[in-house]
Amino acid sequence: MTDEPIDVGVLGYRFMGKAHANALDRLPMFFPDAPETNRHTVVGRDEDALAEAAGTLGFDHTATDWRDVVGEVDAFYNLGPNHLHVEPSVAALEAGTPVLCEKPLAPTLSDAERMRDAAAAADVPAACAFNYRFVPAIRYARRLIDAGELGEIRQVRGRYLQDWLSDPEAPWSWRNDEELAGSGALGDLGAHTVDLARFLVGDRAGEVRSVSGRLRTFTEKRPVEGADGETRPVTVDDAYSAHVEFESGAVGTFEASRVAEGHKNDHTIAVHGSEGSVEFSLERLNELRVLTGDDRGYETVLVTDADDPYVDHWWPPGHVLGWEHTFVHENYEFLTAVAGGATGVAGDAVGDGDDARFHPNFADAYEVQRVLDAVERSDAEGRRITLG
Length: 388
Hints:
Elements: E1 6-11, H1 15-30, E2 37-43, H2 47-57, E3 61-63, E4 75-78, H3 86-94, E5 99-101, H4 109-121, E6 126-128, H5 136-146, E7 153-161, H6 178-181, H7 185-205, E8 208-216, E9 221-223, E10 231-233, E11 239-246, E12 251-257, E13 266-273, E14 276-281, E15 287-292, E16 299-302, H8 323-338, H9 362-381, E17 385-386
Parallel strand pairs: 1-2, 1-4, 2-3, 4-5, 5-6, 7-12
Antiparallel strand pairs: 7-13, 8-11, 8-17, 9-10, 11-12, 13-14, 14-15, 15-16
Helix pairs in contact: 1-8, 3-4, 4-9, 5-7, 7-9
């Protein structure tokens, strides 16, 4: 593993930019074996906002064109809007620069395929930022499932509910535009659910093999912030639901909404088997509800002990972690892979293909995109879609 500091370039400095910059700050203190990093360049369009962001987030340089950066840094974080995922990520990979790209991988399946193929051709890590894989309770659940504690997997239920678009007067943003985002709640939220389902049961239930989906847009246009009386059309879904079947014959239901009143960030997933069940809620991130063997009811397990995944790096038992810690774990694994070290501090890095350096990689994210695409096609064509 190299001892040289890793120069990091980042496209995007708002929500995700802050989350990842915070993670880079935390790494030296809590993961002393993490590779040393240098926050080299932050990329954006507004020079004044860039200068402010560089100071706040700790970057040495700014740039207004990602083309000037992707070949000059040791790792490139693509945290921009969905429509900017493809070109910068592919260019970085072609330059031999490792990439961490936010989810969903791309606006369309064909774009995701191009990114997957570019990653396959590049001998460097290509990561997709599904940060919920790095929740200790999710890793704990994965271990139970892998150990056969739930028996034969029969059913997976996942939902992701938010309410930030419940008000029809909530302003239009790029997330409401199909050209910029690809899809709405389906890609923004559903991608997380599909990835967690694959992570938890993929080895025991296989891939999703058929999908029946439904999309719905409840507010057809929204006001433009700061432009009195101007509106723009909403061309993505506000909510979706899907029934899926896995290769093993297990079934699943996935749903997401950005108009579910009373739900701020309610991501839950449950796995039911012939001998037990597990249930997780992001709103109770340090807990896992478990039923195994001869248990007559669920036990709530507090996943904060030193022998739980990642937790030995943090606080004494019972001192809980939060949402931001998932990014620390994710960055630790990715940067370790970039530096040439073995990843999987939790002992369970998994995914598609032979590359064990980091998962979820672009091949994993492409499989998620196939499911999202099938949901869209099922809704458009009014029929069940079989994934080849």
